[in-house]
Structures are given as structure tokens and as C-alpha cells.
Sequence to fold (386 residues):
Amino acid sequence: MSKIEEGNAHIRQAEKSLKTSLLKWKPDFDFAADEYTHAATCFRIAKSYQQCRDCLMKASDCYKQNRAWFHAAKSIEQSLLICKEMGNLSEVSKLAHSSCSLYQQHGSPESGATVLDKAGKMIESTQPEQALELFKRAADILMGEDSPRQAAEYMSKVGRLLVKLQMYDQAADAIRREIGMHQQIDHIPSVGRLAVALVLVQLARGDQVAAEKAFKEWGNYCDAPEVQTLEMLLQAYDNEDADAARSALNSPFIKHMDVEYAKLARGLPLPQQVYAVPPVGIRANAAESYVSPNATKLTGQATVEAEVNSKENDIATTAAAAAAAAASAAAAAAAATVADTTAATATVSNDTMEQIPNKIEDEKSNTTLQTLDTKEDSDDYEGGLC
Fold:
């Protein structure tokens, strides 16, 4: 008998045990689950993976009916491996969450976290967003069970995957959570390594201030060479020195970090000199500027206001020019008046100086004539008397 026929025989026995009759009121779920499990094993050996998966899911349903949560979760976990063999990863995340929930109901959360980890590794390359959810749930479960060391391992996977997806904001939060987990167990080297990773992530976000704060907060956990390199890196970004930043990023301990962080350091944008006046130019293939529907109305109002302001400025300019011209004319007239007055004064002074000798001579001649007239009058008087 081939394995396919043997498997089909187990399926018939399972279906028979699930039937009820007049004397059998309750299905025998335990026997049916065992038969489905045997059938799945036969189909797996025969490499009939689809039938194997179907039998495992039916066995899980039977275990659920008997409240055998552990065996039900185990059957679903086995179906995950069958899906991997089939290459059908679309249902892996859903099955992993179901199996984890059943393990938690049974009281084995660590087993549930292990299933989530297995499923996350399966779909990490093809479905990274769903893998993130699986790793996050695994970390949360273990933190609830007071296992920060194992939770930090899953959170580390979350952080690296977020960096790989260039989701730097969430990656920074994940790294901070991982740092807190390592601080609970006093694992200093891991905190120092994560401090370097956090500085790189903050620089990738373009937030230099946050990078400096992270270094000040957790830099004391780093070794001396790491501190020196981080100080040189941050100083290079402060001074916008691309060569110094490149030299710091090429340090050995950064190159030997996890693959995702090493790649992040290689692709980190280097600081560039920012010019106060950007160079004039037109960007090639640039899209047209957005024009708001209210732009015409606002432009019209701005034009009217500009015209009114222009007219007012013209009037003010004309008045200022007229006032300046009047002031200039008044100044010129005053200067001319002063000049005429000065000239007239000078002329009068010259005439006066010339007339003084003439006046003296006239006065002398008048005095002589008066003297002669007086003598003649006196002679005439004397002659009369005689």
C-alpha cells in the first residue's frame, strides 16, 4: 500500500469517528485528531503537501474541540513548515498568530514567541511589514513574561528590519526600547553598541540635534575609541566637513557592526556647505508651480495696492523735489543779495574815500572866500565912516 492510500484510509477512519448515530451521540474528536495526524504524516512522506496541510488543520480543529490547546497549536505550527515547503507564504502570518494565541491559552507563551520568530524569518524577505508585526508581538510577549534578554533579541530584529526598510523614525523608537531592555539586565556593551546605532539613525533622519542628545545620554556606555569616533563625526556635521565625516564613518568598529547599520553608515548623506545665496539656475524637468484658484483675486488686490502705493510715492517724490528746488532757489537768491550788498558797500566805500579830499578842498576854498568877503565888508564900513 502506498503512502497516499494509507493516508486516505486514516482520513476515512477520522471521518467515521466524527459521525454520530443513535447509540453514539458525541463525536470522538480525540480519535479523529490522531487519525488526521497520521494521515498528514503519510502525505508528507509522499510529498503531497496540500493534503498534508489540510489534514493538519483538521487535526487542529479536533484538538480545539477537546480543548487540547497545546496539540492544536502544535498542529498549526507544523502546517507553517508545510506552507514553506509549498512556497505558499501568504497565510504564514495568520497561522503564526493563531498558533501563538493557542500556546498562550495553554500557558506556554515562550513557545508562542518561538513560533512567531520562525514565521517572521520565513517571510522577512518577501513580506517585511508582516514580519515586523510578528517580531514586535514576540518581544511584547516575552517582556510580559519578564524575559528582557530574549525580548531584546526580537526587538533587535525589529530595529534592523526597520532600518532596512528606511523607516528611521520607528527604528529610533525600537532602538530606544532595546536599550531599555539591555539596561534592565545591565548589559553595558550592548547599550554602547546601540548608542552608536542610534546616532547613525538620527543622522539618517537628518536630525543632528537628536543625534547629539543620544550621544550625551548614552555615550558614557561606549568604549573610548567609539566615543572619540562619535565626537569626531558629530563635530564634522557641526562644521559641515564632509572629509572628516567620511573618515569617521570609515572607522573599523562602524564597519563591523550589524549588516544593516554598516550599510546605513555607507549610505549616510555627508554634510554639505550651505550657502546664504543659492546659485542661480533652473532645475531640469521641474514641474510647474502650483497656482491657487484664489491667486488671481489676491494678485489683483496686490496690483491695486501696488499702484496706489506707487502713486503716493510719486507724489511724495515730486513734492520733495519741488521743496528741494525752492530751497535751492532761496539759497541762491540769498547768496546773490549778499553779494550785491557786499559790492554796493564796497563801491560806496571807494566813492567816499575818493570824495574826502575834494570835500576838504571845497571847505578850504569856502573858508577863504568867506574871509575875503569879511575883509571887504570891513573896508567898506571903515570907508563910510571916514
Notes: The radius of gyration is 54 Å.
